[in-house]
Amino acid sequence: MRGRGLDILRRVKSLGQLRRAGALDVHRIDDEGLLLASPREQLVDVAFDGRRIWSFWLHRDGEPHDEGHLVRWPKPLRPYIDGTTDLTLTDPGSGAVLHAATVHLGEKQERIEVVSPAGRPLALDKSLKLVETFDLRDAAHVEPLLDAIEEVLGALREVGLDAFLAYGTALGAIRDGGLIGHDSDADLGYVSTYDHPVDVIRESFRIQRALTDMGYRVTRYSAIALKVHVRESDGLDRGLDVFGGFMRDGTLYLMGEIAVPFRRDWIHPLGTASLEGREFPVPANTDKFLTATYGPGWRVPDPAYKFTTPASTIELFNGWFRGMRTGRAGWHGYHKRTIHQQPSVSAVAREVAERHPDLATYVDIGCGRGADVAFFADRGTRAIGLDFQPFAYEAEAQRRADDPRVSFQLFNLLELRHVLAVSAWVARTPGPRAVGCVHVIERLGHRGRLNMFRSARMMLAGTTGALHLQFLSDKGRDGYARRTGARKPLDPAVVAAEVAESGGRILHEVRERVSAEPGSSQVCRMTIDWNG
């Protein structure tokens, strides 16, 4: 029946015949997490005051412990773990209650409320993001989403594409006839008639233009994946994802991401499935499609499901479609989190300024919010800020818009076109030149670091300048890694080997603690050139 409610209990069929709830020993539940023991792997739903908040697999997600497994509170949930709640642990398949107790966590006496600033209830989805899941919404709230699915499918048909429900939306429709309660968005997919990535990319941008002309706000995940923003009846902005795909040499490539042997007749001609009382297109062979997406166990609900994509598939899709965005979300989150902190001039910049008073151009790779760029510009030196995340330097670029000594440029060390084109542009700027790179290479793999060295070598060509590098070499207990976005330390011996591989030499190396406090982090600074 169209417009029926979204009670999660009707979504999760009784699976007693498939998976019986096992014994679960609860040793403690405290501010750290849940220390549980079970003789076998156990899927667990966690509810606060009767509302599901989170799901996990005990052995997979827990840390081995003498008494069982410790499952720590997920990071997004920790700010809310302060107060009292009636906590229930349930097997989501059988519905069996594994444990129930009133617990007090943190210091507050009030009831724990996991809600948005607007007071809307939140829960963790399979990606451990706090969102408004479908089981928290009533039918009237998701009607605009269903309307949008119909309209976007129609728009795609108008541009020559037969799109279909994909991923969690297809799973819910085919398995349960409705939206999955612990899901939070809707997914569409299509398989292009083209078989070359470039043609599929051009087609995706044509689709975006058509949707924009229809009045939708569209953002892009990658070269063939989009998010169409849909406003629900109460003002909630719900995303509708459109994933592009294509067939080539007997393999289905579908963003999101699938790369598996497949047949085109398993997709077309499309069939139909019911979603909340409405009929929508789905792939012709739904078993083959959902097996390729979720594995052969797709019929058994798993609110803690995690996609395990082979590294080869990720690398392939990064090269084809995501070269401009790989890792950008992490840096965006870091800069958003630190936006209210006063940026400081790095020790590298001060050292370069002191040693090279005649410097004409300073280039900051990974400039962030542009503190070092501003420092050199104020000294009368031309300064170029390069960064993967334009959000970081946007404010400083606006402040310096009329300063001819300052330039900011999008720069991606994982994109060879950027490495070559931007580096060649910098090489034409006045010399003497110096290049700085502070707390960037810790977040790069081997290929990215070699691209950084290649870039610096090109930028410094024709000058006696050097690359001035700083990275985390030892992670302490002082929070320095988090404050700088470095995350993990990097062995200086690894960097030295890569410098040699790039044809460079280390002129100077120093390692020092960032403070005199016990257990402080250590950084390594290197001066590198390619003039030898």
From TrEMBL:
<dbReference type="InterPro" id="IPR029063">
    <property type="entry name" value="SAM-dependent_MTases_sf"/>
</dbReference>
<dbReference type="InterPro" id="IPR052613">
    <property type="entry name" value="LicD_transferase"/>
</dbReference>
<protein>
    <recommendedName>
        <fullName>Methyltransferase domain-containing protein</fullName>
    </recommendedName>
</protein>
